[in-house]
Amino acid sequence: MSAPRPKVRIATTSLAGCFGCHMSFLDIDEHLFDLVELAEFDRSPLTDIKHCGPCDIGLIEGGVCNAENVHVLREFRRNCKTLIAVGACAINGGLPAQRNHLDLESCLREVYMSRDGLGAGGVPNDPELPLLLDKVRPIHELVRIDYFIPGCPPSGEAIWKFLTDLIAGRTPRLSYPMMHFD
Amino acid sequence: MSKQFLFDGRPVAFEDGQTILQAARVAGHYIPHLCWHPDFPPHGSCKLCIVKVAGRHVSSCAMPAKEGMEVESNTPEINGERRALLQMLFVEGNHFCPSCEKSGNCQLQALAYDLEMTGERFAHFFPERPVDASHPDVLLDFNRCIFCELCVRASRDVDGKNVFALTERGINKHLVVNAESGRLADTDLAADDLAANICPVGVILKKRVGFAKPIGERTYDVKPIHLVAMEDGK
Amino acid sequence: MIPEDVPAALVRRIVGRHGGDATRLLQILIDVQDETGWLAPGVITAVASALSIPRSRVEGVAGFYQFLHKQPVGRFHLLFADNITERMQGSVELMASLCSKLWVEPGRLSEDGLVSVGTTSCIGMGDQGPSLLVNGQPLTRLSHQRINQVAELIRREVPLPGWPAELFRVDDNIHRRDALLSLDMAPGAALRAAVALGRDGWMEQMRASNLRGRGGAGFTTAVKWMACRDAPGAEKVVVCNADEGEPGTFKDRVLLTRMADMLFEGMTLAAWAVGARRGFLYLRGEYRYLLAPLLEAIDLRRAENLLGRGILGAPGFDFDIEIHLGAGAYVCGEETALLESLEGKRGTPRIRPPFPVSHGYLGRPTVVNNVETLAKTCLIALHGGEAFAATGTAQSAGTKLLSISGDCAQPGIYEYPFGVPIERVLEDCGASDIQAVQVGGASGITLASYEFHRRIAFEDVPTAGAFMVFDSSRDLFDVARNFVDFFAHESCGFCTPCRVGTALLKKAMKKLAEGRGAKTDLADIEWIDRLLKNASHCGLGSAAPNPVVDTLLKFRPAYERRLQSLDFEPAFDLDAALAAARRASGRDDPAAHIGAEEADQKG
Question: What residue ranges define each of the domains in chain C, with the CATH number in brackets?
Answer without folding.
Answer: 6-62 (no CATH), 76-171 (3.40.30.10), 176-389 (3.40.50.11540), 399-476 (3.10.20.600), 486-565 (1.20.1440.230), 578-603 (no CATH)
